[in-house]
Amino acid sequence: MRIKGDHYGDERLPRYTSYPTAPHFSPAVDAGCYGDWLAALPAGTVASLYLHVPFCRSMCWYCGCHTTVALRDGPIDAYLAVLRQEIDLVAARLTAPLDVRHVHFGGGTPTILAPDDFVALVALLRKRFALNPQAELAVEIDPRRLGEAMIAALAAAGVNRASLGVQSFDPAVQQAINRIQSVEQTQGVVEGLRRYGIGAVNFDLIYGLPRQTVASCVETVERSLAMAPERFSIFGYAHVPDFKKHQRKIDPAELPGLAERREQAEAMAQALVAAGYVRIGLDHFARADDPMAQALGQGTLRRNFQGYTTDACEALIGFGASAIGRLPQGYVQNEVVIARYAEWVGGGELPAAKGYRLSADDRLRAELIERLMCDLSVDVDAVCTRHGVDRATLAASDEALASLAQDGIVVIEGGRLRVPEAARLLVRKVASCFDAYLGQSARRFSKAV
User: Would the pTM count as exceeding 0.90?
Assistant: First the structure.
């Protein structure tokens, strides 16, 4: 099927790792509210933990994360002490043990912690929460700064999945984004992880970077394939210099245009599919025998703040400055500024700065958006029935979808929607038809392609 409307790719849209998205969080959800939500979690609630470590040794100019450069260990040690306090505060609010099945360390660079400190931090989590024996413990890694002592510490702590930032192996691109990382350096880390028994390895790549070409994108994929990671994530670079000031060091004249970005993304995707990886949603790829590929086939794939996931938790608890969690009642985000985060925790208060209490309409739209983002299709009538809602309440969404259908961006088959393969990269545009809040904070979002 041919599609029209290339201009859709230039629209700034949410990645829909949550609905509503973070710009709509407000101080109405505060520390007291968060404490009540934690206390209300029943025994045996399936939960996940996310720990944010907002420090790096140097700044990558493309970065869109909440992180800061720490050239000394002092700020990191001080932050770790506060993080441990927050873990104690949250644990004290719980009235029943949880069934923790996923733990994810993100950043920043989580492996900036000293090896012994990382092991002790995981030990504290095991002490304060009921970590399932089969729990997945994942950590994001900067391969440029990972020695054998830290790899040994990860293994000792029980880490069983590692996500490596690669982005691009093109030297010209690396120079333009202030991230010099050789193939040999990356391969050494992969081999070290596997030698210590951490066999599940993910690679993060980016298209749309300055000086990047279709040929260099494909070459990066080919070099990565030689290391045989279990999963790939391929993200489009989001240039938001008003929001992330360090991105001003990137010359916008060196950024590829929309057509080039689309060609880069598709060329990388086709190279991975040809190598036997299953294409998942907007930007993930996994081996056919990987749990993520299996979840896609079974219709149980989920999407959260880490992207696509097999994690079907009922509660996600975030720790650290800027960390976001989700409880049955809604979303909670910690204070972003590290100093203020530390003040709150040091004063014995949960550092929840803002959040969002979900309404019945939000839950309906969230499910519709998540299924579209995961499956590229959704039975709208079935979801409405499940939520006890008349389909007529989505009349505005149906009108927007009808317009997209004329351009071949979505196929309407009775009560079901389907995004054709040719429009896969525009799935966020289709999902946005169900977003009741769209347009209020578009400048903070990335381009659709």
Answer: yes
